[in-house]
Each structure stands twice: as structure tokens, then as C-alpha cells.
Amino acid sequence: MKPSIFSQLFFVLFIAILSGCTPRNETLTVIGKNLYDVNNEQVVLRGINEMFIWSDDVTGEILMPEIAKTGANAVRIVWLSDEDSPKATPQHLDIAIQNCIDNGMFPMPELHGATGEFSKLQNQVDYWVKPEVVAVLKKHEPYIMINIANECGAHGVEAEEFIASYKKAIERIRKTGLKCPLVIDASGWGQDLEILLETGPELLEHDPFQNILLSVHMWWVADDGSTERIVNGIERSVEQELPLIVGEFAPMGVGCKRSIDYKTIMEKCEKHNIGWLAWSWGGSQNGDCAEMDMTRGKQRGLYEGLTDWGLEVAVTNPYSIQNTSKKTRFLKEMANNK
Prior knowledge:
This protein is 37% helix and 14% strand.
């Protein structure tokens, strides 16, 4: 007797379970508080920010291989819309993303044009939904994360406005067919973790794929380095099972004052498998605080130029990139196949 379609499907499923197979994801995928690659291998981001859009090496031909020497598994690619920079072409974005994955690092492009200005959120989304940009993102979708808008909104953005605006942003991007993770920065120049804790669950639920990462920038300047705030904030996100990452941090903040407890950020993120990306590599110099550059001097932008806190965060600290970053089999394969 010919077996029914149901018995055939059951047999296939039974064999898959016995062999330890799991379905392959189409993209990087958020489950609970964690991120997984296409092979369902957990990804804990350990990476670096770089201001490519203001660099002579806008597509990362030189800088990406140098960043990769740290062992980083992700790069946050600072970008702008084509309205804000003539360099921000789909072609340049395509090459920058390709150079990132070719060097074994997950790319996270972000738009910097709405920093501190919540009214410009949809303006940033306008770039992401352009057909020529969507084509680039679709090409790289299995390994890309889209950071919708850098630090969109100053202090004082209300939760109701934050939810309504980001729901619209999610809807507009998902209508293009993109399924990859969308990264949402906190308002308050990226620092308002409270708004992520309050609105995160509703925004996750609103996304048809629930494929959202919430990003806080820990520029929490205080005389004591905000240690208690860091510890409590991270622990509260873990209690809520929120997919939190620390999208930016450095030892110094406003006025270049070294008052941020970056070592505790690294330690607590490692304890709870929370991703982080340090600010910033230094291929394009930080104008407001040169000490934020991880690489400096004649070897600026090169691995050999790592110095001071940059060397510590990338290499020497027990919780540095080199000591904690893990590259999934998928990442290694992508780098080997370039």
C-alpha cells in the first residue's frame, strides 16, 4: 500500500530528529535574548564600530582585514543616506558589506543621519526601502543586520512616540521582503536603556518575524563610572529575556573624560552572552575626542596601531575581543570561500 503524505512527512521528521538535524534559518535569527546564524549556531557579537562613510577607505578594502586581525566577529558599518553623502551609493554599500563578510565578520550597516533627532527616523527608513538599496541588502541577507538609525532621538522621547514610530519603521522595511534582524537604538543619544526595557517587548511582538535586536550605547558618564547602572541595566534586560546588545562604548565620554566603566561592560556582557561593539577603530579620526580612536599614530587604522584602551579591549583584557570572540562555522566558511 502506498504510504500517505502524512506518514512520509513523519518519517522524514523522525530521521531528522535521530540524525540531530535542525532546520536551516534564512537569516541571522533572534530567539529569546539570543542571536543565531543560519546553521542555528549561537552568535555573541564581539566587534568594532568604524566610520567608513567618512573614511578614505569607504568600502573597507584596507580596514576590514585589519579589524579582522583582532578576531572580531562583527563590524558596525557607520553609513549615511545618499541625501547626506555622495559616497553612500548602493554600490559602495555592497562592497563594504562584502568586504566585511569576506573577512569573517557579520556586517551591521547603520545610518548616522538622525543622531539625536527623532523626527528624522522615517527619513532614514526612506534609504533602506529604496529598491536599489533593498537589492543590495537582499543579496547579503543571510548574514546582515540592519541598524535602522543611529541614536535616533535626544533625551525626553516618550515611550508612546517611540513605539508608534518604530512600528511604522518595522512595517516599512518588512514590506520590502527583508527578514533579517533589525537593530533598534535607544533614544537619548542611544543611552536610554529604560525606553528599550519598556517598549522592547511590544516592538518584538509587532515584527512578523520577531527578529529584532535592541541596542544601548553606554555613554553613561559618572564619577564612579556608572558601574551600578551598568550592572543593573544588563541584569534587568536578562530578566526580561530581551535581545540586548551594547552598540557603542569606550572609556571616555563627553569632554573626553575617562569616566565610563568599560571593563565592567565587557565583563558583564561576557557573563550573560550579550554582544558588544567598541567605538571606534580609528580609520576615520573621532573629531570630538581623539582618544576614542582604538588605533592611532602613523599606523592609524592598522592592527599594529592599536594602543591604550583600544589594545586592551581588542587584545589584552581577559574579556577582550581576542579572548572572547567566537566565529561560527558559517562565518569561517564565508571567509574561506571569498
